[in-house]
């Protein structure tokens, strides 16, 4: 079985940090830009429930894993629990600015409803795909400062903290999948992985577009010119969607593993400001 340890992944270090509790966040906290702000706000709304789903999907396959992988799963859970808590706090700032996120929440609930009754391995495959999305976005946030240029300081620190930990644990869901499907033929593994990523991408992109446009509508911004601004932000400058496209395609390589792309060097520049603290072991 291939594993993250084969590629020398970094230690997964849960950092119990809290951000933005004193308030003071602007409505358009990302450099006064409603489009960039809506992009990250719409993403943040998905995280509390989405990351709870990730935790349950991986935890369902924890029993019987090798000790090293079990330890990584436990650290992954601890990180994700903290991420959910901080995005709940961040999302409170979003609603405090007058945004109604009910439609965005409904989209998340509808997506999660589709997972009910599915075999646990199907949920793990979806989590593996979504964890690749978060890892790609995390890489870009840390690799190119333009993405958070001009952001309110506490918001920027929160997103960078989240990005560091997403990079650290980017191989955990994948390695759990490798263990859970260790008796599957390689061809079957690849087919399921590829089909789930295609389906997940369609739902993920559609949901986030709806969320961004809904938040902008509440700012009184709609129509073709606004659609162009959203497209420009995503694909041209800073162009985070365009920039993650090669990594997204890489997921479909038969020999793919998250740690074949070793980007741990991005962590070091941010991690000095993110001291680790002790947390209780997860249940």
Task: Describe the fold and architecture.
Residues 1-24 are annotated as: Disordered. Residues 1-12 have a biased composition (Polar residues). This is FF domain-containing protein. Pfam families: Metal_hydrol. It is a single chain. The protein is mainly alpha-helical and 283 residues long. It has one domain (26-271). It is 64% helix and 0% strand. The protein contains 10 helices and no strands. Helix 3 (102-113) runs antiparallel to helix 7 (186-218), helix 4 (120-143) packs across helix 5 and helix 4 (120-143) runs antiparallel to helix 6 (172-180). It is globular and about 55 Å long. The model is unreliable at 275-281 (pLDDT under 50).
Give descriptors for this structure:
283 residues; mainly alpha; 64% helix; 0% strand; disordered C terminus; FF domain-containing protein
Layout: helices, strands, pairs:
Blueprint: H1 34-59, H2 67-96, H3 102-113, H4 120-143, H5 153-168, H6 172-180, H7 186-218, H8 224-235, H9 240-250, H10 265-271
Helix pairs in contact: 1-2, 1-3, 1-4, 1-7, 2-5, 2-6, 3-7, 4-5, 4-6, 4-7, 4-9, 5-10
In terms of DSSP E residues, the strand content is under 5%
Compute the CA-based radius of gyration: 18 Å
Shape: globular
Number of helical segments? 10
InterPro entries: UCP07580
Organism: Sphingomonas sanxanigenens DSM 19645 = NX02
Pfam family, one: Metal_hydrol
Protein name: FF domain-containing protein
